[in-house]
Amino acid sequence: MPEQVYRNMTRVKHLRAKQRCSDIMKAMNEQRDNKLYCDITLVARGKLFHAHRNILAASSNYFKSKFQSQGSDPFEKMLEIDGVSRLAMQHVLDFIYTNRVCVSINNVDEILYASWKMEILDLMKLVVQYIKDQLDPTTCLHFRDLGKTYSIDCIVKQADHCVRKHFEFVAQQDDFKALTISELNSVLQSHELVVTSEKVVYEALIRWVKYDLESRKPYFISLFQ
């Protein structure tokens, strides 16, 4: 190999502008806010949200599939998002464009549903982690229902453990009365169940039975055994 060619090869270096991608997304978000170059309008419960197809398709297989669908008009300007609230739609788009989301106890259900429906997997992972961090005796039954609804086993498992560990407190919550017979039986039969006395279990069963006396009364004896 000629010496000059070798020297030229050794001088090659791959360079990267570290902030370029984030700067581009920042500019795209500003364009979205100002409705510039937007080529799709999402509709959530009557409210219009302007966005860019390429950004949505790159962020979600749900949108990618919608835009690539053979039955869809590629020039269609509006897309109805059924079942997603206005608030959740705003949070989802903010996350897609900024990589940030504000989750609270008040909106976590809506954002989880929206991220699941629209297949925003990174957002869903963040919401699941938020739920795990916030799961305690006051929230475990509600979050357990969410975990079962979306087949998120890690949430269900953590919630079940919390119910058994803090049974006396959890049994006072309204959500406790909505447990099914199989769910309640699973809690009572667990070796992890922590109670100070049988009286705690008895009183919890009384509250559970009274919530739907006609249908639950036959289960009382078998549950308490």
Describe the SSE topology.
Layout: H1 3-10, H2 20-33, E1 40-44, E2 47-51, H3 53-59, H4 61-68, E3 78-80, H5 86-98, H6 108-117, H7 121-134, H8 140-149, H9 153-165, H10 167-170, H11 181-189, H12 198-211, H13 213-216, H14 220-224
Parallel strand pairs: 1-3
Antiparallel strand pairs: 1-2
Helix pairs in contact: 3-4, 5-6, 6-7, 8-9
Describe the model:
The longest helix is centred in the first third of the chain and has 14 residues, at 20-33. By secondary structure, the chain is mainly alpha-helical. The protein folds into 2 domains: 19-134, 2-Layer Sandwich (Potassium Channel Kv1.1, Chain A); 135-225, Alpha Horseshoe (Serine Threonine Protein Phosphatase 5, Tetratricopeptide repeat). The chain is built from 14 helices and 3 strands. Helix content is 59%, strand content 6%. It has a 3-stranded mixed β-sheet with strand order 2-1-3. InterPro entries: BACK (IPR011705), BTB/POZ_dom (IPR000210), SKP1/BTB/POZ_sf (IPR011333).
